[in-house]
C-alpha cells in the first residue's frame, strides 16, 4: 500500500499521516522530518537542506528523490508507506513513478488536503512540535494546547516552534506550494488516484476525522 499526502503547509499532512501510521501500521515517511533530523545532527545533507528550508524554499529535486528512493528500499516500508511531503514537484512525481514501475509497485491513494488560507496561517504560527524525535507530537497553542505550557503531554519533551513556521517564511512556503506543488493535484487526478478532503475547523472536519474515514475505507476495500 502506498499513500501520498498532498496539501499546502499547515493542512495537517503530518497529523493525518501519523494517525494513519498508528491505525494501519503503514510507515510514515516524512521528507521534512528526515531533513530536520539531518539539520540537528549537522550532517552534510543537513547543512545543504538548511540553506533552503530556512528560507522557506524546496530542497533540490535530485537530493530529495535520492533520499526517498533509498528510504523505500528499507524493510519497514514494504508492507505499506505513507509519503508525507513527497513528491512536491512534478519532477519528483515522475521520478517516483519510474522508480515504482521498476519495482512493480503502484500508488494506491493520493490524499489531497485543503484548508482555507486564513486557517493555514493561524495553524502554522501557533504550531509547536515535540523536540523528541521519537515522539514528534504536534500541538496548537490555541486549538490543541498541551496540559503544561511548553511540555509534551505524551513524553514530557520540550515543545518548540519550527524555524520555518515563522510568519515571514510561511508566506514563501505557501507561494512555493502554489507554484511548484499544486500542479500535482491535476497530475494525480488524471491518474485516477486523487482523493481530496477539506480540513477546516469551520466545518468541524479536522485531521482526526479524515484519518478515521481513510482507515475505514481501507478496511472495507
Ligand atoms: P515539511 O515538514 O513537510 O513541512 O517540510 C519542511 C521543509 O522541508 C519544506 O518546507 C521544504 O523546504 C523541505 N522539504 C520537505 N519535503 C520536500 C520535498 N519533497 N522536496 C523539496 N523540499 C522538501
Task: Compose a concise summary of this entry.
This protein is 47% helix and 15% strand.
Radius of gyration: 17 Å
Beta-strand portion reads: 15-25%
Inertia-based shape: globular
Strand line-up in the sheet with most strands: 2-3-1-4-8
Please give the count of helices. 9
**How would a crystallographer describe the biggest sheet?**
5 strands, parallel
**Total beta strands:** 8
The level 1 CATH classification is Alpha Beta
Oligomer: single chain
Structural class of the secondary elements? Answer: alpha/beta
- List ligands, each type once: adenosine monophosphate
Mean pLDDT: 95
Termini gap: 12 Å
- The CATH topology comes to Rossmann fold
Tell me the count of domains.
Answer: 1
Helix and strand string, N-terminal first?
Answer: EHEHHHEHEHEEEHHEH
CATH architecture: 3-Layer(aba) Sandwich
Name the CATH superfamily assignment. Answer: P-loop containing nucleotide triphosphate hydrolases
Give a verbal description of the structure:
With 221 residues, the protein is α/β, with parallel strands linked by helices. The protein has a single domain, classed as 3-Layer(aba) Sandwich (Rossmann fold), CATH 3.40.50.300. The chain contains 9 helices and 8 strands. The protein has a 5-stranded parallel beta sheet with strand order 2-3-1-4-8, with helices on both faces. A 3-stranded antiparallel beta sheet has the order 6-5-7. The mean pLDDT is 95.
Amino acid at each position: 500500500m502506498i499513500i501520498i499526502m498532498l496539501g499546502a503547509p499547515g493542512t495537517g499532512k503530518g497529523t493525518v499521516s501519523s494517525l494513519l501510521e498508528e491505525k494501519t501500521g503503514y510507515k510514515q515517511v516524512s521528507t521534512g522530518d528526515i531533513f530536520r533530523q539531518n539539520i540537528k545532527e549537522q550532517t552534510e545533507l543537513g547543512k545543504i537542506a538548511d540553506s533552503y528550508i530556512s528560507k522557506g524554499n524546496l530542497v533540490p529535486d535530485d537530493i530529495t528523490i535520492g533520499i526517498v528512493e533509498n528510504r523505500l528500499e528499507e524493510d519497514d516500508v514494504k508492507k505499506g508507506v505513507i509519503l508525507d511531503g513527497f513528491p512536491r514537484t512534478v519532477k519528483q512525481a515522475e521520478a517516483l513513478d519510474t522508480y515504482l514501475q521498476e519495482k512493480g509497485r503502484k500508488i494506491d491513494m493520493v490524499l489531497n488536503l485543503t484548508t482555507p488560507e486564513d486557517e493555514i496561517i493561524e495553524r502554522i504560527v501557533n504550531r509547536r512540535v515535540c523536540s523528541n524525535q521519537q515522539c514528534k507530537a504536534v500541538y496548537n497553542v490555541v486549538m490543541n494546547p498541551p496540559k503544561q505550557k511548553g511540555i509534551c503531554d505524551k513524553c514530557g519533551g520540550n515543545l518548540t516552534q519550527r524555524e520555518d513556521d515563522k510568519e515571514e517564511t510561511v508566506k514563501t512556503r505557501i507561494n512555493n506550494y502554489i507554484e511548484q506543488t499544486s500542479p500535482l493535484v491535476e497530475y494525480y487526478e488524471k491518474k485516477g488516484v486523487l482523493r481530496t478532503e477539506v480540513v477546516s475547523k469551520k466545518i468541524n472536519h479536522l485531521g482526526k476525522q479524515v484519518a478515521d474515514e481513510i482507515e475505514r475505507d481501507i478496511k472495507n476495500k
